[in-house]
Amino acid sequence: MDLGADQARTPEILGRDRALARIAQLIDDADGSGPKVLVLTGEPGAGKSTLVEWATSQATARGRRVLRVRGCEGEQDLGLAGMHQLLRPVLAGVDRLPSRQHDALRRAFGTDDTDEPQSPDPLMIRVGVLTLLSDAATERPLVIVVDDAQWLDVGSLDVLAFVARRLEGERVAMVLAARDDAVPARFDRDFPHLTAGPLDRAAAGLLLDRQPHPPRGRVRSQILQQAAGNPLALIELTRALGKTPGSRGIGSIDSLSLPLTARLERLFAADLPTLPEATRRVLLLAAAAGTTQLSDVLHAAPDVDGPQVWGPAEEAGLVRVEGGQVQLCHPLVRSAVYQAASFAERRAAHLALAAALADEPDRRAWHLGAAALGPDEQVAGALAQSAERSRRRGGYAAAATALERAAELTPDPELRAGRLLAAAASAMYAGHPQWVGEIAARVDSLTDDARLTAEASLRGGWSLAVTLRHDDSLAFLLPVAESMATKAPALALDALATASTPAYNSGDPFYRTELERIGGLMAPRPDRSDCLWTRAVSSPFADRKEILKNLTHAVDTLRDPSLAEFVVLGAVAWILDETDLAVRLLGQAMDHLRRAATAGANATAAQAHALALFESGAWTAARSAAEDAFWMAAEAGADNVTVGSPILQATLRAVRGDHAAARAQVGDAVRGVDLRKSRSLYVRYCHALGMAALAEGDHHAAYEQLRRTFTQDFHPAPVHYHASYYYLADLAAAAVRAGRADDARAVLRAAEKSLGASRSARLDAIVHRASALLSGPGEAEAHFRAAISGPAGVRWPFEYALAHLDFGEWLRRRRRSAEARPLLGTALETFERLDARPWIERTTAELRAAGVAVADSAAPEAVADLTPQELQIAQLAAEGLTNRDIGARLYLSPRTIGFHLHKIFPKLGITGRAQLRDVLGHMPRSD
């Protein structure tokens, strides 16, 4: 069909930037000398047709004529059916072709009026089509769009391949899309290919968020796991879940019970009903087993006919068997196979597997639990024991799932309540707040025990603590802490420590007072790390010295630390400005999560790690960590992080000079969010916008934004009792250039008075820099020298470099250029390492004004084309890590790592990972 000149609305396509750029370039080259053919491949549901539609709309919008054809299974045996569909809009031009070409096409399409039974000349058909297309492109360039090429008839494919090889010099381009396992032989080698691979985790999460009813919590993680980055699967699974909310299925394990739509079943398991009964049986065993070990299936079905039983399934493309492994071709095939079986068949499969796995108690317990028909204490006990073993290995998510199923099978209500609470605790460490809330809510109906109900309230409060519902969370937690202060001090301390996080994020002075009051009802426990967190939140400045002493002791005496200890002590170190220690402890917490495949995730810890990395100057790692935190939070429903992480990413964009993107990202992050009750996020939001304005050179806007981190009172107070102080120096820098120094001095005086003398080296340097900028000539120099002395250069490099730049500027303006040069040189070196482009330009200009010749700084061109995530993957691969190792570190599948590497190689101009070390070896690591 011919789309003529009607312009279709261009849809936004997530995660396909590279593909869109390649297609756009091809469309532009239709009238130029670049490549004229692009073969687009991908698995079913990968979004090839979406890209084809985008290509069509873009070509039309750019004034190209579009001819398109879509393969149809029902027309595969009709000769030249596809070519007839493609050429229908231009068939009138056949009459203008040379006679032999004219006659050949007339005969081929059955429009020849003669009764002669002469067969058309195949060469003349091909030449005729080429001429027809060339003529059609005379008035304006032509784009040929072919979708589902794997279903075109052979004759049409022959003609298309003939045309594709002869487009040089023609005003014609071709986009051809086909399934990656069925690319027509004529197009599988001779033309450039572009694979629409799986979406990365962030893009997949954004696609889920754009659905009418975005999934949250554990089911979101299950959808992401099942879909494996397949866009259609993400959409269809979400749609199916919306039609059957709460669908779980008796005896289901993992995410096998997520409902599939008929469309997904057709795509991934259309041939399943036609397979022999024995083949469907072993497929069901493979799906239920949850592993790829062929021996598991063979032991569970000793009567099957050896390797031959798998043949029909392999021919259907559902499974691949080799090397003792049975690999289903996609997670959705596993689900389709499992759901196609009856309950009796599924139960029989689980019982057979349980019998075959008698020597593996954990897996045996899982299968017995999946096969159980009702309460069964023996099976419940086995699952509880399995959960304890998983918990000891750090497998919190697996432990929570096992305990939840154990509770369902537990006859005694009190014991069931206890197992539910244990499940909630493991789900908490796995980082799934909504799941925790769902489990804890079921406890009240099972018991009247005050301690158990208080623990349920604790878990319920924790499930809200990572959201923006700070008041609701504290309404659960503070009463538990107070009521259990003498009856169950350990439980009360847990509640108080948990309450400290929403109290900090809220920033409301009332909650800090409550933390101190309720804490006073309990005996001091300086040996508990969570007590340090409560004290640090309550009094981060006045009690800093004592808290730091206890922190140092706690870290020095750590023995076999738990995930919670890493996270809590890392958070205490961060709030006290022991940034290096915070990076180390929070990094160990993330490593702890990565080591256990079933550990889960912790968005709050990931965001704290990202903040610490940012402050330490490890900006590339900070951006990657913030992105990880975002998708973790999106899966968990932790909206404190889904807002906070983009704010940090926007700040990183701002300090690297992308001020427009920074403002756009921070605007998207807070759209529809009321930050008035989340003061920590509010001041970080203001700081991000302030830094974007500074990067742009708009000092008036920068000052207005940064000024909002303090109140407008006669004696300005920090909007957030802790976070606001760290923006004093930036506020002062903007004030001087915006002519608002008097107002800024009032803020600084009030801040110094409330801070007192007990402040960290970092905060001391910030206050000195602000004082230097706002002081008269007689006092400024002493403050500048204080700001650049001490450990700030190593621990907080960006702030250190800013102080050097400000001091260097101050000296040069007083005609002390010789003294200014080394300060400016130090600043420039740090800014270049951080890639803080606005400040590189400013420092370079100052150095030139001071009489120093400075070459323009630019990142190596090839590496500059890589995204932060691609650069991180490339660096890890260059160090010799395998795709599996890299995936474990970055929470990505090995397949996704491979997909990224295939994108990275052409950007770097290399062909394999062995060359990465040579390319990246000349680049200093940015972190």
Folded structure, characterized:
The strands form two sheets. Strands 2-3-4-1-5 form a five-stranded parallel beta sheet, sandwiched between helices. The protein has a two-stranded antiparallel ribbon with strand order 6-7. With 927 residues, it is mostly helical. The protein is flat and about 105 Å long. Residues 1-11 and 247-253 have low confidence and may be disordered. The chain has 47 helices and seven strands.
Give a short synopsis of this structure.
The chain is mainly alpha-helical.
Q: Overall pLDDT, averaged?
A: 85
Straight-line distance between termini: 53 Å
**Count of individual helical segments:** 47
Strand order of the largest sheet: 2-3-4-1-5
Q: Work out the radius of gyration.
A: 32 Å
Outline, from the CA principal axes?
flat
Percent range of helical residues: 55-70%
Largest sheet: 5 strands, parallel
Q: What are the segments in which pLDDT stays under 50 over at least 5 consecutive residues?
A: 1-11, 247-253
Sheet/helix structural class: mainly alpha
Strand content: under 5%
What is the number of strand segments? 7
What oligomeric assembly is this protein in? single chain
